[in-house]
Design brief:
2 helices; 12-stranded antiparallel beta barrel; 277 residues; disordered N terminus; single chain
């Protein structure tokens, strides 16, 4: 890798392009801005570690003409770090993402559509030693929707970059340059959702990134949303994200793995607050 740090400007440019792209081609638009506030726990089972914290988020979503849909958002976290898996962990960390999709082919009245989609995601400074990761993809999606239920498969390709923090790996004999990798990569995602404004709804996915040699990252995600008839917030939500990283490409012969763990669980309990601009 030439250094994920040098991709920071690219990262923000790509994320900023999402609302620009979804605004430009249409005139009949439907925008929604939502703030969120909640609690989270990062669970690293291999270290028997739980790190609690608070988080604030902002999300902008859009649905427009020709079923063009997109969203972009950022979540800021603050950790109460008592286990110090990373001895020099900054308690503030961030994640951001953006997506844009549009169905292009409809197979009669079957509810099946084929379309394009693009996604960008960024994660920085986690408690389990991830310095930064940047992912960007462009691909096609096969979707089936019946009333409030939807399932689908997306296949794409793009960029996958990851850098581990050097504190723990340095103690295991690794230099900083050994902790950085990037490559062109393929990604597939199985996803599902049930979205009903007046009832309990949920969505989730199973996603894997791969290069030409092996898998790079597996992720499972599930979110449950409970609508609330309140003047301020409109839903209470809980989400869980399980991520496992392939550490084998970083390992040097004769040395221990760069980290004593390769997976984590992120639990989040939060309220969503619609904003009227």
């Amino acid at each position: 890798m030439t250094g994920i740090g040098r991709c920071v400007r690219t990262k923000w440019t790509l994320l900023a392009l999402v609302p620009v792209c979804i605004a430009a081609p249409v005139t009949h638009s439907a925008w929604r801005t939502v703030a969120s506030a909640g609690l989270h726990d990062t669970r690293v089972a291999e270290a028997d570690s739980d790190t609690l914290g608070v988080n604030l988020g902002l999300r902008l979503s859009y649905t427009g003409a020709e079923h063009l849909a997109g969203q972009t958002g950022v979540i800021a976290h603050y950790d109460h770090d008592i286990d110090h898996l990373d001895p020099d962990h900054d308690p503030f960390w961030f994640m951001a993402s953006g997506s844009l999709s549009q169905p292009m082919i409809r197979l009669g009245h079957s509810g099946v559509t084929i379309g394009w989609r693009t996604d960008v995601s960024w994660l920085q400074n986690t408690v389990f030693g991830l310095e930064e990761t940047l992912q960007a993809q462009l691909g096609i999606g096969l979707d089936y929707q019946r009333q409030a239920d939807a399932v689908g498969l997306a296949l794409g390709g793009g960029y996958y970059g990851l850098e581990w923090d050097d504190d723990v790996p340095e103690a295991r004999g690794y230099s900083r340059e050994a902790l950085k990798r990037s490559s062109d990569a393929l990604v597939w995602k199985l996803f599902f959702q049930r979205s009903v404004k007046t009832e309990l709804s949920w969505d989730g996915y199973w996603q894997q990134w791969r290069d030409q040699d092996d898998w790079l990252e597996n992720q499972l995600f599930l979110a449950i949303h409970y609508p609330v008839n309140h003047s301020v917030m409109d839903s209470l939500n809980v989400s869980v994200s399980y991520t496992r990283y392939n550490l084998a490409p970083y390992r040097l012969q004769g040395k221990a793995p760069i980290l004593p763990w390769d997976e984590n669980l992120l639990f989040r309990l939060y309220a969503e607050i619609p904003l009227a601009w």
